[in-house]
Amino acid sequence: MAQFGFENDIHSILKLDMPITNGPMARWQRKASSSSSSALSGLSPSKSANVSLGSSKTPSKTPGKSKKQTPCKMGGDRFIPVRNNKQMDVASFLLTKENEPVEAKNNTETQKAWSISLNGYNIEDAKILHLGGRPLNAPEGYQNNLKVLYSQATTPASVKKTRYISSTPDRILDAPELRNDFYLNLLDWSSRNFLAVALHNNVYLWDATRGDIIFLMKLEREEDYVCSLSWTKEGSYLAVGTSDCKVQLWDVEHQKRVRSMASHTARVGSLSWNDHILSSGSRSGHIHHHDVRVAEHHICTLTGHSQEVCGLQWSPDGRYLASGGNDNLVCVWPRVQDGGLGNRSQAIHKWSDHQGAVKALAWCPWQPNILASGGGTSDRHIRVWNVNSGSCISSLDTQSQVSSLVFAPNYKELVSYPSLTKVVELHGHDDRVFNVTLSPDASTIATISGDEIICLWKSFEMDPVKKAKEKMVKSTTNITHQSIR
């Protein structure tokens, strides 16, 4: 019978689905029983000392940790959180995403998957306020009664420039035998869109509207040369200053010389018109006023310069004449009165701030009391003057010889310097630029240089976006090369 009892015990041990009633006591149970013998002594003798693992109460101490209590209260049940399969899937998903690049984590689809996995739906779809599409315009007649408490306008430096300025010339004209002389003024553009250029002892006209080249005149002696050109305001007549001390007046429409005026003792390097008064500057330093309506044309002489007068410009309103010379002076003279000035030959202002020859002079069209002047190699400065107060408003070191200045009214710029802030540099010449002149519509400037070419730059067009579209349509090249002769 004892043998059968032993076999029954073996079978009961091998059955894992049944509780072990007579197995060895666990280590933590032995320690617990030894440390609390007084508590065990109160137990009923009928109960076994070996408590089963399937007991309904968990021990008050963690197995194997006799000195450290569990977070729960002594004698209470230890909390074991319940995790369902859904939460385990989300945890596994998040762990795998930790090893992926940042770009993948920021992906919209990934964020959507996270939202669906964590919340059971996409949280973006549950937003109360959602921005989508273009904002609606206010109804017609709507007025906003809210007051602006604070407003700050953007500074000019932060305004984005949307105007397109090509850095290459739109057209190039050959100008062979151009005299390489800084003090001469060999280019001028008329109000009738004719560009006049002097090449040695010849004068040519380029019809900017039709593109034709017109030969106007040639000096009789080969050793003589043309020194200066200036159109009348109407564009019908062209004044020509020569090296033989004369000033010629030509009728362009009939290609005929109207008269030749002799009064200077040296070459005439600068010219400027004020209605029927033609002012001419000479290498002698003298400035002569000519009334072209009368036979005795020479009506006044201005003697403020000690060296050649290379710059001469009347103001747009005809009140002042500005002159610049090789003596580094800038002079401002009063208006010419009918019948001559007599003894009134004193300059209103005489500025000596420049340290080089002053050839570049330009009056501001929209503010006639403002004059800009540019100095030569020893000076390299552009200075802006207020004729009313006689003060220098601003000065800029250009790091280069300044040979010509032009105000562009379309954008209120001084060639490429609005408020003395450079907008763009135009690169098309291989030598220094002698003269700059503006087209009658103020959209294009012409430059002439010692490299014997004339470049036309469409830098001041009023609708640059439309022009850019037209250039894209054209299949031909942007530069048309043509000879002036």
TrEMBL record:
Keywords: Repeat, WD repeat. The keyword Repeat applies. One of its GO terms (biological process) is positive regulation of anaphase-promoting complex-dependent catabolic process. InterPro entries: Cdc20/Fizzy, WD40/YVTN_repeat-like_dom_sf, WD40_CDC20-Fz, WD40_repeat_dom_sf, WD40_rpt. One of its GO terms (molecular function) is ubiquitin ligase activator activity. PROSITE patterns: WD_REPEATS_2, WD_REPEATS_REGION. Residues 173-457 form the CDC20/Fizzy WD40 domain. Residues 31-63 have a biased composition (Low complexity). This is Cell division cycle 20 homolog. The gene is LOC101065248.
